[in-house]
TrEMBL record:
Protein name stated in the entry: MoxR-like ATPase
Organism field: Sporosarcina limicola
Gene3D superfamilies, A to Z: P-loop containing nucleotide triphosphate hydrolases
Residues of the AAA+ ATPase domain: 47-198
Segments traversing the membrane: none
SMART domains from the UniProt entry: AAA (SM00382)
Domain of life: Bacteria
Coiled coil spans: none
Pfam families with a match to the protein in the record: AAA_5 (PF07728)
GO MF term list: ATP binding; ATP hydrolysis activity
């Protein structure tokens, strides 16, 4: 683990924020919208602190987790939460198999146990979509004990030294519920905002190098307008999704910009007034 600390410290000493951003973009990784998020998440992970990423859809939470996995060359086990998530989905399940001509019961390990034993990253996406009564089984995994008693086998599992937990939530979305305080207090929490300005421009250019500078500039202006309207409360968070904006650029290389934005951004919004507002913003930049 000392080698991980040395890597992180070397990153801070030898690289400016802009240099780190360019390097991560070139590698297809997460780009931090401020000089601190990326480095501070790395420090938290090195210190074995479970990390909670809070932010709107499309802000890059999953990309951040994937980039951490790449940075530490550490495989990632993923859990996608929903109201149907149960202990078996997290820990594993018993099944009947035939072995050497005999029928035996075998336990198939789930993502939590695999990550704990192998020293992988456990990524829990949309953790606030799970039923509150499902997640207390992870309390001992997430605190200083870093252990778990498997209720299906009674095996006591102590986490590998490199075991890491990263969770993500979209706050205030339909189907979500407030996190239990006992669970929330086990995490170090980071708010992940949308990219903007020069960093967003770099991502656009790197993702679609064939896109013209005129198209990139138009999409950047549209993206900034959408973000401002989200801040003003006139548009839903997903209207400013970087993921959707990149989808729009991909389409706009082959079809008119207005239609590209309509398909990639506006049509995803449930509210008719919001869809109309998005297209009105586009009209200010596209003639």
């Amino acid at each position: 683990m000392n080698s991980l600390i040395e890597q992180e410290q070397q990153l801070r000493v030898n690289s400016s924020h802009e240099e780190v951003a360019k390097k991560l973009i070139q590698q297809g990784g997460y780009v931090s919208p401020n000089p601190f998020i990326w480095e501070d998440v790395l420090v938290s992970i090195v210190l074995k602190k479970p990390v909670l990423l809070k932010g709107p859809s499309g802000s890059g939470k999953t990309k951040l987790a994937q980039t951490v996995s790449h940075f530490f060359q550490q495989p990632m086990q993923s859990v996608n939460c929903s109201v149907d998530l149960d202990a078996e989905s997290l820990l594993g399940f018993k099944t009947i198999i035939s072995k050497s001509g005999e029928t035996v019961i075998e336990f198939v390990e789930g993502p939590v146990i695999q990550a704990m034993k192998k020293g992988h990253i456990l990524y829990i996406d949309e953790i606030n979509m799970a039923r509150p009564e499902t997640l207390p089984i992870l309390h001992s995994v997430l605190d200083h004990r870093r252990m778990l008693t498997n209720p299906f086998t009674n095996e006591v599992i102590h986490a590998h030294d490199n075991f890491t937990v990263i969770s993500a939530i979209n706050e205030g979305y339909v189907g979500t519920s407030p996190m239990n305080e006992a669970l929330k207090n086990r995490f170090v929490s980071f708010s992940i905002p949308y990219l903007n300005g020069e960093q967003l421009k770099m991502v656009m250019q790197d993702t679609y190098p064939s896109a013209s500078m005129q198209l990139v500039d138009v999409m950047l202006n549209i993206g900034n307008d959408l973000k401002n309207q989200v801040i003003n409360g006139l548009l839903s968070d997903e209207a400013a999704s970087v993921r959707s904006l990149l989808d729009a650029i991909a389409l706009a290389e082959h079809i008119p910009v207005k239609r590209a934005v309509q398909y990639a951004i506006a049509e995803k919004l449930d509210d008719k007034i919001e869809r109309r507002l998005v297209m009105e913003l586009v009209d200010t930049w596209v003639r």
